[in-house]
Amino acid sequence: MKDRVKVAVLISGRGSNMAALVYAAKADDCPFEVALVASNVPDAPGLLLAKAEGIDIFTHTHHGLSREEHDQIMHDAIVEAGADYIVLAGYMRILSDEFVGKWCDHMLNIHPSLLPKYKGLNTYQRALDAGDEHAGCSVHLVTPTLDDGPVLAQTEVAILPDDDAEVLADRVLIAEHQLYASTLAQYITREADPDWILNQVRKHALALEETYERPSFGTPGWRVGSEKTGKYFAYFSLRHFGESGTSVFVKTSGLDEQSALLDADPDLYFAPKFYGKSGWIAIRLDTGHTDWDHVADWLKKSWRMVAPKKLTKMMDIAEEF
Ligand code: GAR
Predict the structure, then answer these.
(1) Whole-model pTM?
(2) Of 290, 264, 293, whose CA–CA distance to 281 is shortest?
(3) Which domains does the chain have, with CATH numbers?
(4) Cα 110 to averaged position of ligand 1 atoms, centre (Å)
(5) Which pLDDT belongs to residue 45?
């Protein structure tokens, strides 16, 4: 079986979403495993189930600790368990900005409303009071503002004429259990999707000044400068010219730097056959653990190598001081 991505599930109570994830992870083709269930409530009912299923558990009360202190204790336990992602499942704690920052893009939450509607508590009653036709649930990435990060997926749940908050909550919960496992599976395998990878490269390349995209020999490329005299600083390669896998080509300062990189990290870099002789280097993007900050740094470096002087002048001056 392929290595599965390890996730830590954080709960404060019943833990039915945690249970749904644990059972989903029993399927042979599930890309994640629950490596840890952690709680700020030492007697949270969900912990019993996790333990019975043979999953490591960790608890530490938040009483008597600052938010930062408690978050740090949870963080250490999660890292110790080897988890790459945190899944909040009814974890009723507001998290410190520092903790959220450490797990940026690697922490998901489920919320019982169709966000951005009804952040916070009493979501079902608020949907009923508003006369909504649908309630629902959302899985979103966690950012410092409560229930506010980018929504990854939602399920609508019809409101029936006789629903009260309790009955509606029970039905939304069924939808939550389906939605969380499938969204988590899709999210953690996104780096295997070439379209997702291309969009990441595109986002970073077009964030640089005076850049635009233009295909080159059938592959997306990014140029800096004017339409007429602009120069390429990056190419996307999905098995382009017979290369393997998915990569981005960027410009090094020349063949010396290129061969130093190839020696230093042959798993990450290779010399693209078609462009290699001019000092271009390929960075693999399908290893499953791409460091996107590193890729963004490379794009910037490559951009700087070919950008018109008027764009780089200020940077050069700033660097002299
Ligand atoms: C779930 O309904 C979840 O959406 C909600 O708490 C419940 C936990 O149930 N979370 C929030 O309201 C977060 N803002 P569970 O412990 O049985 O999974």
Answers:
(1) 0.81
(2) 264
(3) 5-191 (3.40.50.170), 194-320 (3.90.1150.30)
(4) 7
(5) 97
